[in-house]
Write a structure and sequence with these properties.
This protein is mainly alpha-helical. Helix content is 75%, strand content 5%. It has a two-stranded antiparallel sheet with strand order 1-2. Strands 3-4 form a two-stranded antiparallel ribbon. Strand 3 and strand 4 (182-185) form a beta hairpin. The N and C termini lie far apart (56 Å).
Length: 351
């Protein structure tokens, strides 16, 4: 089965190339759908397939930049991108990214990069999964209470409403974001962008893993606008990150190109799917993906502490991460086809 593996000349490791294609297509669909580069799944996925963590981070960022550009263009046509918000967040994103990238180089010199990044990933994913499912539960509780009281269900109601507290911060200058329908202090999106930029640099993500939830729960963006605007930011941080990690010699361009071919197709599918799956449908699917990714990292950490189970844990981790990507991709694709059929049927009725 040697033909299923390809040598990565810069990283010096042999990689299961069908796994790269599955990651590329699947994360292209998922990234276009959730409004993020999908690196929160690809970086651990590449590491599970055999890349050293620093190379997994740099390679993923290079692949992510091109795919996010495609997705942003599609979302822009649907009116889902708040370009003013994206440009305001630009400075914080780039500064935070460079801080994170320098920390990775420092951890690599100390020999602690693998274990540190995996634990940080696990903490972050656990928090986000809790946040998403808590939000969904509270949303459904509100709907149930409204029905019991005989009241109309507010379709715009949310579970977690942290954004209402943050929008009360009135530190000048104040800005009005028309597409996102938000009035807030300019320092709020700048703070969010710095934090997510730092995470992008240290975890190899476009920042979308935390920025998309932050745009929803901290700034109060509608879900579809958060998706499109986040992809705009992922594109910017990805292009900058690809340059800085390539300069540091931690980007495997062969793997990035293999994934990008599949991702270019997948991104189109995922972006169009947001037209038919709205709001909490996106959030629930996102939460499930986060849980699956968390479990794969737990298995890798278990293998680190108990080397006797390394082969078993590595194989299960690989199957799990590729299974999550494949399953979610199929679900999104099927829902897109169903939505398109309903749209065509409704148009025929009106003719």
């Amino acid at each position: 089965m040697e033909w299923l593996y390809v040598l990565m000349p810069i990283a010096g490791v042999k990689i299961f190339w069908p796994g790269l294609i599955i990651l590329g297509i699947g994360v292209g669909i998922i990234g276009g759908f959730f409004g993020m580069g999908g690196a929160w799944m690809v970086t651990p996925g590449l590491n599970i397939l055999g890349f050293p963590m620093a190379f997994a981070i740099g390679t993923d960022i290079a692949h992510m930049a091109g795919k996010s550009l495609i997705s942003t263009m599609r979302h822009g046509k649907f009116g889902n991108v708040d370009y003013k918000l994206g440009l305001i967040m630009l400075v914080g994103t780039i500064v935070g990214f460079e801080v994170g990238a320098q920390m990775i180089m420092w951890l690599e010199r100390l020999g602690n990069v693998e274990i540190t990044v995996r634990y940080l990933y696990l903490v972050l994913l656990t928090f986000i999964a809790w946040m998403v499912f808590t939000d969904v539960k509270k949303k459904y509780d509100k709907e149930r209470q409204a029905k019991q009281a005989g009241q109309d269900v507010d379709k715009l109601a949310t579970g977690l409403e942290w954004h209402k507290t943050f929008q009360k911060i009135k530190i000048p200058p104040m800005i009005h974001l028309h597409t996102a329908q938000i009035y807030c202090s300019a320092w709020l999106p700048i703070f969010v962008s710095f934090l997510t930029g730092w995470l992008a640099g240290i975890l190899g993500i476009g920042g979308g893993l935390i920025r998309m939830p932050a745009l929803i729960y901290v700034l109060g963006c509608p879900t579809h606008v958060a998706v499109g605007t986040d992809l705009f930011e992922v594109m910017i941080s990805g292009l900058y990150g690809a340059a800085t990690y390539t300069f540091k010699g931690r980007t495997e361009l062969v793997a990035a190109i293999i994934m990008l071919v599949g991702a270019a197709i997948g991104a189109q599918i995922g972006t169009v799917a947001t037209k038919y799956i709205k709001g909490y449908g996106i959030r629930i699917a996102f939460g499930i993906a986060v849980v699956g990714c968390s479990l794969s990292i737990v298995l890798k950490l278990f293998a680190t502490h108990f080397p006797v189970y390394k082969i078993i844990c590595d194989n299960i981790s690989t199957v799990l991460i590729l299974g999550v990507v494949s399953s979610l991709s199929v679900y999104i694709f099927v829902r897109m086809i169903q939505g398109a059929k309903q749209e065509i049927a409704s148009k025929k009725k009106t003719l």
